[in-house]
Amino acid sequence: MWEYSEKVKEHFFSPRNAGMVEGANAVGEVGSISCGDALRLTLKVDPESETILDAGFETFGCGSAIASSSALTEIVKGMTVDQALEVSNQDIADFLEGLPPEKMHCSVMGREALQAAVANYRGEQWSDDHEEGALICKCFAIDAVMIEETVRANNLKTVEDVTNYTKAGGGCTSCHEGIEEILAVVLAEQGETFESAPVAAGMTNLQRIRRIETVIESIRPQLQADHGDVELVDVDGNTIYVNMTGACSGCQMASMTLSGIQQRLMEDLGEFIKVVPAGQMAQIAKAGA
Amino acid sequence: MSGIYMDNNATTKVDPAVVEVMLPFFTEQFGNPSSMHSFGDKVGRAMKQARQQVQTLLGAEHDSEIIFTSCGTESDSTAILSALRAQPDRKEIITTVVEHPAVLTLCDYLEKDGYTVHRLAVDSKGRLDLDAYRQLLCDKVAVVSVMWANNESGTIFPVEQMAEMAHAAGVMFHTDAVQVVGKVPIDLKRTRIDMLSLSGHKLHAPKGIGVLYLRRGTRFRPLLRGGHQERGRRAGTENAASIVALGKAAELALRHMDYENTFVKAMRDRLEAGILAAVPNAFVTGDVVNRLPNTASIAFEYIEGEAILLLLNKVGIAASSGSACTSGSLEPSHVMRAMGIPYTAAHGTVRFSLSRYNTMEEVERVIAEVPPIIAQLRKLSPYWGEDGPVADPEKAFAPTYA
Q1: A62 annotated active-site
Q2: Measured CA distances, B173 to A54, B100, B146 (Å)
Q3: Which ranges in chain B are annotated with CATH 3.40.640.10?
Q4: A145 in reach of chain B (CB within 8 A)
Q5: B311: closest chain A residue by CA
Q6: Which of A88, B79, B96, B394 is in the most buried spot, having the most CB atoms within 10 Å?
């Protein structure tokens, strides 16, 4: 079952301004019957002041579609037409104390109905500027069409790219398979093949050690500022031996500094790394032998 | 006011007698049935009895044909993947457009791996075209997987006949029977069905237990390999308490089979007739003369299902819907669309599925509650006028971006 807020439930169970407004001079009809949502918004606008005197809705849709329609009419009553155009779908969702991600499109439908009604009042033609696809990322409510278009427009290649551009996949990560499928399709159109990004693979030992050195070099200035220092002693597989010198030597915070270095190395190399004081080298070698 | 539960195709209440028999297997009878000591031995015996109880309900020839799994979905996946692995030269699957996602989603995935999937269409009553099916049967087909009854409309498919046809063509036959087992008599030894899936929680056993029936001699490749449990066909320590529970539930289902097909059916028929008499622009979906005795799928035109469910829930009535919004998808139920039901009705389908725990009093209360709810929502609908649909509804309201 959906987790609807109390406000959504209240507006669904006792909708405000249901039905057509009498003497309406602005009508907006939007939605998609295949998606199961459609809304007719009617407004009565005072031609002198351009104030919305009354608003009414008729909705074919689910609980949150009806609640969003009801909320919309409450929000815009008393506004001028220009003010009403400023109302965003987030405003509608906020008015309802939030909507589940799968239901955000109900608030989008509300905003579109408003734009369509204002266009109708002004004798203009309103056309929808977005297409809606299947919901992929539930954490940030990003649909397939949005991801596809962003991948095409920006020539994206990896799931990480998609997350950086759209936020999709940046939360619980369970939609990564879906994002990979979209990437595979779009890249195939462009004659490319999708490959999951290899992390810091294919480095020679020398390249890897130089990279470790670079990371450690980048940390040194901070330690030197506190009159400490660190030097790389040896690299043995995933274990990296360092010497803490200066003020760092014997400092109570040394182990925290070490784990900070370890974190930076792991992020940079994309692999598991253990940073160990060089003093433990002999001990570990003995235990290994 | 106590709630009225009419969503038994989704899941059922565990029978109190079932709870009673399973409880000792959490406490004193906790042994591993594979162990040599007496702790394990007793559990092994209880599981043997449960296997025989399921065998009896299914009319299977041997109790070794019963493999306990974790759920219906696992049984479906095991059956289909086994057929493909056991016959690597056969790259085609025959199924239907109205299967449960447990089969459809797997088939979509297999299609990406290069398998060819034939999805049989249905007519407006949800029935299959057996001539079209016959033409697809050939030695390239690894398995036919067709549900015995549809979970949404309750429509029953002629799987016994279809299994005969598959057998004659030398093709393995699997049926997802989760909605049928316990509601309709089954006698597998008299059929050519090679594999059958069932799910405990659809017949008053707990969730988390299922069965794959595997006809003796059917070539098989396990999904889970490991220990020797279930004769090496489904490794993993047995869910002993739930297996014992399913055995008891199977025994009870057999005992209530007549009741299901007389009293439960009578309640369903009364519910349907009562609602249709009071609500205009509503109709029953599926094959009315050939369906599960407990299922009523009613399409209410010009309104949306989730809204109906929320209002029903408010008065304590639990049902389900084929609307897009209840599933989080954008399309209404694939089953309703496959039957060609228009969007304005498909979104408004509500499924009432009864069980032996429902009463005629409950049915009458639902008949009284439904009409005002439908009327209330239609008042909000742009497709509805004063007391009927607006003239030419699809034209009178044609929103942008349809």
Answers
A1: no
A2: 63, 17, 8
A3: 16-255
A4: no
A5: A13
A6: B79
10-residue stretch averages of pLDDT, chain B, 402 residues long = 90 97 94 87 94 98 97 98 97 97 96 96 97 97 98 97 97 98 97 98 98 97 96 96 98 98 98 98 96 97 94 96 65 89 92 97 98 96 87 77 50
Interface ipTM above 0.95? no
pLDDT of residue A138: 84
What CATH number should be reported for the domain whose range is B257-396?
3.90.1150.10
* Residue A201: pLDDT band with limits 50, 70, 90: low
Q: What is the set of domains in chain A, with CATH numbers?
A: 6-121 (3.90.1010.10), 135-189 (1.10.10.1100), 205-288 (3.30.300.130)
Give the whole-angstrom CA distance, residue A148 versus residue A146. Answer: 6
Nearest to B381 by CA among B296, B308, B284: B308
Chain B contact for A34, CB < 8 A? Answer: yes
Instruction: Give me the total of CB pairs closer than 8 Å, taking one residue from chain A and one from chain B.
Output: 106
Topology of the domain comprising B16-255: Aspartate Aminotransferase; domain 2 (3.40.640)
Q: Which of A13, A32, A60 to mutate to test the interface with B (most CBs of B within 10 A)?
A: A60
Enumerate the residues of chain A whose CB falls inside 8 A of the CB of residue B347: 33, 36, 60
3-state secondary structure (DSSP) of residue B128: strand
Whether B66 contacts B213, CB under 8 Å? yes
Task: Give the span between the Cα atoms of A51 and B202, in whole angstroms.
Answer: 57
CA distance B201 to B205: 5
What is the pLDDT, as a whole number, of residue B328? 56
Chain B: which residues have CB within 8 Å of chain A? 302-307, 310-311, 314, 323-326, 328-332, 343-344, 347, 379-383, 397-402
* Counts for chain A of helices (H) and strands (E), in that order: 11, 8
Closest of A63, A19, A67, A27 to residue A44, by C-alpha: A27
Q: Which residue among B302, B304, B344 sits closest to A62, beta carbon to beta carbon?
A: B304
Please list every residue in chain B whose beta carbon sits closer than 8 Å to the beta carbon of residue A35: 324, 330-331
Amino acid identity of B266?
A
Q: Across the interface, which of B303, B311, B398 has its CB nearest the CB of A60?
A: B303
Catalytic option among A35, A62, A139, A251: A35
- Unique residue bearing structure tokens 């001699």: B217
A12 contacts chain B (CB < 8 A) = yes
Q: Does A18 touch chain B (CB under 8 A)?
A: yes
pLDDT in tens, A30-45: 987 766 788 999 999 9
Write out chain A residues lying below 8 Å of B344, CB-based. Answer: 33, 60
How much is the average pLDDT of A282-287? 76
pLDDT for res B327? 58
